[in-house]
Amino acid sequence: MEQQRQQGAAARRMATLASHLRPQRASSHPQMEEGPLLMGSNCRAKGAAPGFKVAILGAAGGIGQPLALLMKMNPLVSVLHLYDVVNTPGVTADISHMDTGAVRGFLGQPQLENALTGMDLVIIPAGVPRKPGMTRDDLFNINAGIARTLCEGIAKCCPKAIVNVISNPVNSTVPIAAEVFKKAGTYDPKRLLGVTTLDVVRANTFVGEVLGLDPREVNVPVIGGHAGVTILPLLSQVNPACSFTSEEVNHLTSRIQNGGTEVVEAKAGAGSATLSMAYAAAKFADACLRGLRGDAGIVECSYVASQVTDLPFFASKVRLGRSGVEEILPLGPLNEFERAGLEKAKKELAQSIQKGVSFINK
Ligand SMILES: NC(=O)C1=CN([C@@H]2O[C@H](COP(=O)(O)OP(=O)(O)OC[C@H]3O[C@@H](n4cnc5c(N)ncnc54)[C@H](O)[C@@H]3O)[C@@H](O)[C@H]2O)C=CC1
Ligand SMILES: O=C([O-])CC(=O)C(=O)O
Description:
Blueprint: H1 2-21, E1 52-57, H2 64-72, E2 77-84, H3 88-96, E3 102-107, H4 112-116, E4 121-124, H5 140-157, E5 162-165, H6 170-184, E6 192-194, H7 197-211, E7 222-224, E8 231-233, H8 246-257, H9 259-267, H10 275-293, E9 298-305, E10 313-321, E11 324-328, H11 336-361
Helix pairs in contact: 2-10, 5-6, 6-11, 7-8
The structure holds 1,4-dihydronicotinamide adenine dinucleotide (NAI) and oxaloacetate ion.
1,4-dihydronicotinamide adenine dinucleotide (NAI) binds at residues 57-58, 60-64, 84-86, 125-130, 139, 143, 146, 149-150, 166-168, 170, 195, 198, 226, 271-274, 277.
């Protein structure tokens, strides 16, 4: 009797397993969109683990792949969706072998809606990167259209998701996203955040080098935007409190503003920052998820709709919570050098914002 019961159970397990090993209709990868179940729960049906659903759009790229790795390791993430127009089957198969949460891959525009449906957080590193000699604004012509298409999908399929925009030029792609959401009637400025964390990460590193401190103990607010002079580190507000000579201020400000170009030149045509960016994006996404969970006191710099200056978008410290950006913190006292930097930053930012807005409303 017991033997018969065990044989029956084993036969049922084999049948379930075999059904998942059969070739899929449009995909030979069981964890891809056409597959029956999420990878990691193939053999026995289970309810979804508690946690957040996160999609990465541009997941097969230089940032997307290490970001997928880091998000798959995040215990707050229960389901990870990887969307790209190329190569997601391989990336998803690879990542799916990690013994962490579930992952599912989506390939090409027809699968965008399924990639987005039900997501709590959408991270967008889709788009072309710079080559030496280019500015971030030189990417506008290609990346603006990519940002528009992806945000139209978000407005339709997960209008309540928090959106983290990485694609450059961030100073324009965030206003583009806002205009797309406004047109769709889904715009919530608290849920749209441009990722400027890499500027803070770099500032912490370079300031740590100058002060001889562990960069993990340094926190430098970086305000403005994410390109050249719009990146404005507030070296007068570094934590722990410290002071710099004017040579140090000039050196640090210039290195932080040109950190992206430093990497573009070192990569000599093979792209821009990917690994440090994936680290920064994962750090920022984790802060957004902790905010969504209801953790208190989460403050990060981000480029958001803001009244902290007379511009409609500006990067500064924001407090994150259950509804996204719950408070935009004041800039604090700026010294003369920083006030001059702010004026330069605002001039360039105003043009980049207008360019993004006009792209959607032309
Ligand atoms: N915010 C920031 O601090 C930073 C932003 N970036 C920006 O991030 C973007 C991506 O950089 P990388 O990953 O190095 O580029 P990459 O070229 O290595 O990867 C981009 C990925 O986007 C995908 N893609 C293109 N069109 C798409 C679409 N319509 N839908 C979905 N995916 C699409 C590509 O297939 C590719 O896999 C660039 O615009 C870059 O300038 C890069 C570093 C820092
Ligand atoms: O410099 C680039 O083009 C990529 C980027 O935004 C950065 O590394 O900060």
